[in-house]
Design goal:
46% helix, two-stranded antiparallel ribbon, 16% strand, alpha+beta, 2 helices, 4 strands
């Protein structure tokens, strides 16, 4: 049962990081400057999950995650010559963040988080029932 709890816990941690990444994307949906103040739109972050093959084990080992930049989705281009970050043609490059996609991903991550909590709860109930049988 401990292994089941470890797997579910790693799933909880992975989904929490997924939600954090989504929240960062939503927060920067209109950011047109980089951290140094240069005109460069924020680039959407994606999270990738993979099996955590700890100690050479590949069955039921848990979840690892990696945050990557979304280089495939193009930036949004908006014609706004009055914007201070517009180029010579009056085009402003906005981040490649789609709010609807981010909210959909957040909903999926929330459901996965809840599923992991349900597994932990069921494991706890099984352990309690086992202890009752032994007593």
């Amino acid at each position: 049962m401990q292994r089941t709890l470890d797997i579910s816990t790693s799933g909880l941690v992975a989904q929490r990081h997924r939600l954090d990444t989504i929240a960062g994307n939503i927060a920067h949906a209109n950011t047109t400057l980089d951290a140094d103040g240069n005109v460069a739109p924020y680039q959407r972050r994606l999270i990738t999950f993979m099996a955590d093959e700890a100690n050479g084990k590949s069955r039921g080992a848990g979840v690892k995650h990696r945050v990557e930049l979304d280089a495939e989705t193009p930036f949004r281009s908006v014609y706004d010559p009055s914007h201070p970050h517009a180029d010579k043609q009056g085009i402003v490059k906005y981040p490649n963040v789609d709010i609807i996609t981010e909210f959909s991903d957040a909903l999926l991550a929330t459901r996965a988080y809840e599923a992991n909590i349900a597994v932990i709860d069921m494991t706890r109930q099984m352990a309690e029932q086992s202890m009752q049988i032994l007593v």
